[in-house]
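Encode chain A's predicted structure.
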Amino acid sequence: MGITVVAAVAWWAVLSQVAGIELQARQGTVMRINGVSVFVAATAMAFAGWGLLAILERRTLNARKVWTVVAMIACVTSLGSPLSSGIGVGAKLGLASLHLVVGVAVILGLRRTTLGVTERCV
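Encoded structure for chain A:
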C-alpha cells in the first residue's frame, strides 16, 4: 500500500509541479487536486482493495481471480470521472493517468500477496 501512495504522489508531483498541468475537476464546484487529496484518495483505494481481498479470501476459493476482475473493472470504471469532469485536456489526461497509477499499483501489489487455496485454512 505504501508503494501505491508514493507512486501516486510522485506522479502528481511530476504532472503538476514539473509539467505544470493544472489538475482541476468540476464536481459541483471547481476542485484543485493537490498532493494531500492524492495521498488521501490513494490510501483509501489501497485500503478498500485490501479489505475486499481479505473478505474474498475468507469467502471464496477463487479470491485472486474474482478480486482481480473486480479491481480491473473498478479501475476502468473510475476513468469516467476524470475524463468527464477534468477541466481541459491536460487535466483530463493527467487525472486519468493518476487513476491508472493507483489502479495498477493496487492490482499488481495486492494480487501478489493473495494466498493460494492450499496456503489458506479453508
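The mean pLDDT is 93.
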